[in-house]
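comment on this one:
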Amino acid sequence: MVDHRTTVVNGIRLAYEVSGPREGRAAVLLHALGEDARSWRAVARALAAERRVYALDLRGHGRSAWPGTYTLELMASDVLGFLDALGLGAVDLIGHSLGGVVAQLLAQECPHRVARLVLEDVPAPRPRTPTAPVRPDGELHFDWNMVTAVRPQLDTPDPAWLDRLAGITAPTLVVAGGPASHVPQDGVAELARRIPDARVITIPVGHMVHDEAPDAFTRAVMEFLSAS
């Protein structure tokens, strides 16, 4: 059973879905740009057999507040505040794309709060050629102003983010999407090299690994999280 809940962190509402046994080890799932907690439902359902699973809507997404103020650092601060609000200690943290960047920042700043880290098709934070985002037609389930606010940070990351990857202490699984992904796979490989206790696996289905290959993704993640 999935419960839909909210809490207030940094003065804004954060919505999340929670499932799994109360006594289970906590796993926190962070979605990609323009997605929300619903994108994790297949993964959350499998993890919830043994874990207490929290899938967040990051600020500007889904049922969380759309406050108009957006940075990747604020998103990471929101996640830390969420852990504090719910009384969670060290958690298993799983992030896809944008959520993976947010997860990296949290693991850099507060390594003691991340027991194990999973980063899905996320490259090392290096500058990339900017492209103008095009707003999709119709009603959106995310704040378009959030997209235009965080894209410059994704295109030109703070150089310190790259250096601070070496400070991540959590055992880390980097899941690459392979040649079909729009994310440069050499950047994904570099990310794994720069995190001290990291390994990379490739599930060659493109950027949306947990959507396109949910069984393979979930199996790899569960094996990693359960390893001694």
Summary: Residues 3-226 form a domain with the Rossmann fold fold (CATH 3.40.50.1820).
